[in-house]
Amino acid sequence: MKKLFKALLVFACAGTLCAGALALSACGGDKDTGAYGLVHNAGYVGYSTVTVDKDDKVTDATLTEYCFPTQVKTADGDYYAEVTYGKVTMKYDEEGKTYKVGEQTLKEYFKDEDNCKTYVKAVNDGKVYVTVDGVKKNDVMTKAALCKDDNGYGGTKFDWKKNRDATVNYVKTYGVAELLKLEPEEWVTDKNGNPAPSGVWSDSNNVSTGATWTDLNTVKEGTLSYAQLIVKAFNKVAKTPVNA
Prior knowledge:
alpha+beta
């Protein structure tokens, strides 16, 4: 009888722990359901989260970008020769005028979403290092220097935050159903003779996003548009994904 009681007690405790774990998972806990990917001509790492209710209605959304180490220079105006975080080492390639991870270019290396995630986490945690006068330092490649939320990217000439906020507010208000249908006011020809969007982006119902940034819904090989990244984040949490 005592053995039976102990067995039932163990089972009950295990069930409680399991239920707690499931509840934590359901509430998100520390599980990252956000989407990562190369954005803006594959020059930055984008990160987006979308929260939905039981009916897949968007209740919240976020969007930000992280610069690569080329954003930060030494006091002499040079790029740091080597940047490290975790097990990753980036070395500046003078010929290509950018950093490489081993033999891979940044565009090749960060094509993998997990690599994007690891980089963003290192930046957020203050664990990106450079070596200055033989001393390993983590106060150079900081979040304040690399995250567009903090580094004043674009200044007043191109207000990154204004465009980001307009995009996020549109998603919070209207969801993601029309994101991949957004069109600019007009298409113009850029200096290379290629079609380029101009003006404010609106959906097929003529609802304006208020955003004017070039890559909101511009499809390019090897990089995600902001619309694609947000939809990717939505599809990670929604019961019924949007066809991206």
